[in-house]
Amino acid sequence: MKKEGTGNSATTNDELRPEYDLRGLRVRKLGRGRKSFGGVVRLEPDVAEVFPDAEAVNEALRFLIRVTKENQR
User: What is the pLDDT of residues 26-46, one digit of tens each?
Assistant: First the structure.
């Protein structure tokens, strides 16, 4: 017997569950008004495969920031 909602369906809902609401998430500041990550951020190997350089990572993060701000409106 197959469970309902499993498998690849054309009606997959990509919305986060209410318990995963990230709108209130804030970055904690540690130390002197921390704004940088010390110059180096280590990516996991699977993530690093997707991004050829630091500029590509920054571009993706800026896009994510822009989309997040647009969705809050």
Answer: 766 666 655 566 677 888 999
Alpha helices in 1-73 (DSSP H): 45-48, 54-72
Domain map of the chain by residue range? 39-73
Closest CA to 57 of 36, 38, 41: 41
What is the Cα–Cα distance from 5 to 56, expressed in whole angstroms? Answer: 35
Q: Is residue 22 helix, strand or coil?
A: coil
* Residues in the chain, overall count: 73
- Amino acid in position 41: V
Give the chain's largest Cα–Cα span.
58
CB 58 within 8 A of CB 64: no
